[in-house]
Amino acid sequence: MDTRKYLEGKGYDGYKFFGNHKKANNSYIFRILAPNAKNVYIIGDFNLWTEEKLRKYSTGVFSKTIKNVKEFDKYLYVIENENGKKYYKLDPYAKLIDKENENSLVYDKSYKFSYKYKNEKNLNIYQMSAKNFDGKIFEDKKNMDKFIQYLKENNFTHIDFMPIFANRLKEDFAYGSSFYFSINETYIEIEKIKLFIDLCHKNKLGIIFEIDISSFNSSEKYLNKFDGSNMYNYDYDDILYNYSGLINIDPTKNLAKSFILSFVTYLIKEFNIDAIAIVNLENLIFWQGDKSRGYNENWLGFIRNINKYINDLNKISIGFYNSIWKNNIREDLGFDLIYDRTLAKLIKINQKNPFERANYSYIVKNIIENDYKNYLLGFNYFDSLSEGASLAMKMNSNDKKYDQLKTLFLLVYTLNSNKMIFSSDEFGSLETFNFDKKINIFKQNENEKDFNEFYKKLSDFYIRNKNLYENESKTKILEIEGYSLYAFKRIYKNKEYLVIINLTDLEYKIDLPEKIEKVLTSYNENYHSKNKLYIPAFGSGIFKIK
C-alpha cells in the first residue's frame, strides 16, 4: 500500500496493509492508523489482555508484530489521546468480529476462486438476507448446490445480498449500522460465503453486495473519535448524527475516502462479486437525507468517483433510492442501474377496491410508457415488511390475492427494465416478514407452488426475449375500452408481443384486429376464440402477434 496516497484520500487497498496479517511461525503483524493518538496499545487472548505498546510512525501508522497468535483470538486496541485518556477500540479493518460484536478476531485467510461471471444485459435479481435464511443453506456444498439449482430454476441471474457485515441493532438489516469489513459469523461463515459465490459463478449466477456508506455504527468502540479526533465524521454537532442515530461519514475527510474506497475494493477483490449496490442514496445526495436541505455536493463528487472505479473494474454499480429518482434527482452520478420506489404505486393501486382503480390509470400508463432501461423495477424487502404484510398479502380481497399478484408480476416483467424481487416473492408467500423470520423456500403450499410455476414461466420468457430488454426494443401503448384495462405492445425488430392487463374484477371481451398466439396467461382457461379475446377478472396475458 502507498501510505501517502492513502493519507491523501486516494487509497484503494488499505485492507492489505491495516488490520491483522499473518507472518511466519504463528506471528501476526497488527497495523492501525491513528494520526492524533499519543499511544496505541493492543490487548487480546494472545497476551492475556495486558497492554502491549505499538510502534508509532510519522505517518500516523502504529504497528506491532506479536508471536504465538492463534486464528480467531479476540483482541482490541487501546487508544491513548493527547490528554492521556484511554479508549477501547475495535480494529476497523478486522475481517471478523465476535458474536457479541465486542471484540475483533484474528483472521487472515484468502480464498482462491475458480470461476468468474460475465454480467448479462437482462438482470433478474433475487434480493435476500442471509440472516433470514435457514443456516443449513450455507452449511455445506450439497445444500449450496440445492439452493443454487432452485435459483436457476426460477431464472434469476444475480443474488443480491443485503448487508452481511456485523450489526449491533436487532431490528435492522445492517443498513448504515454495520461494521465495515467485519463479518459476524452467526449467520454465515466467511469461508462458506466465498465457496457459495464460487459455486454461483460456476452455475452462471452473479453476486451483488449491498453497502451503506453514508454512516457508521455509533458504538464507542468503533470509528467515532477513533484517535481522539473526528477522523471519519463531521466536526459539527448539527450534522454529526443522522435521523436514525447513526454517525454520518464526512466525505471531505481523506481518511474516510480511503477507508470507503478500500472497503469497495475489498468486496470486489476478496469476494469476487459482480456488482456493488449503494443503498439509502438519499442520505448521501441530500444533507441529512432531507431534500429540502439541498444537495451535498461533496458526496455527489465522491459517488461519481466510486462508480467510475467500480466500472473500471468491469463491475456493475447500482444505486438504491427510497423515493422516485426521476422526480428528485437531476444529477448523473454514474450508476449503471437505479432501483427506486416507482412500483410502490402499483402496490398501492392493488390495495384499492377494484372499482377505485380506474382513477389511477394515468399512473399505470405512465409506468408502461416510460423508459426504464437503466432501472431495476420490482420489489425489495420493504414491500414484504411494511404494513405488517408480505407483498402477496397486500393484494386486495381474501380469495383473489394470487390472481392479482400474477397480473402484477406479468405487468412488471413486461416493462422495459431490469428486474428485482425479494426472497419468497417468487412463490407469493402470505406470511408476514420480519427481522427474525426464517425463510424456508423448499416448503411451499399448493397455492405457492402454483404461483411459483407461473413465475418460472414468466421469468423464463423475460430472460429469453430481447423484446423485453434490448436497448432498441420499444413499447407502444394501445387504446382499449374498459376500466383499469391496459394493452400495449413490446416490439423488437420484426417481432411483436401483445400484453393485456386487467386490474379489475370485471371480465372483458376484446376484438382482435390481428392474429395472435398465446404465450403466457395468468389464468388457465382458454379465453381465446378466432376474433375475440376474453380476459377474466384480474387476468393478464402475453400474446405473440403473427
Question: Descriptors for this entry?
Answer:
single chain, alpha/beta, Immunoglobulin-like, eight-stranded mixed sheet, elongated
What features would you describe in this structure?
By secondary structure, the chain is α/β, with parallel strands linked by helices. Among the domains are: 3-105, Immunoglobulins (Immunoglobulin-like); 474-545, Immunoglobulin-like (Sandwich). The chain is built from twelve helices and 29 strands. Strands 3, 4, 7, 8, 9, 10, 13 and 14 form an eight-stranded mixed sheet that branches. The chain has an eight-stranded parallel barrel with strand order 11-12-15-18-19-20-21-22, surrounded by four helices. A five-stranded antiparallel sheet has the order 23-24-25-29-27, covered by helices on one side. Helix 2 (141-153) crosses helix 3 (190-202). The chain is elongated, with a radius of gyration of 26 Å. The N and C termini lie far apart (62 Å). The model has no long low-confidence stretch (mean pLDDT 91).
Spans with pLDDT under 50 lasting ≥5 residues?
none
Would you identify the CATH architecture of the domain at 3-105?
Sandwich
Strand content: 15-25%
Could you give the count of β-strands? Answer: 29
SS class: alpha/beta
Which overall shape is indicated by the principal axes computed on the Cα atoms? Answer: elongated
CATH fold category name of the domain at 3-105: Immunoglobulin-like
N/C terminus separation: 62 Å
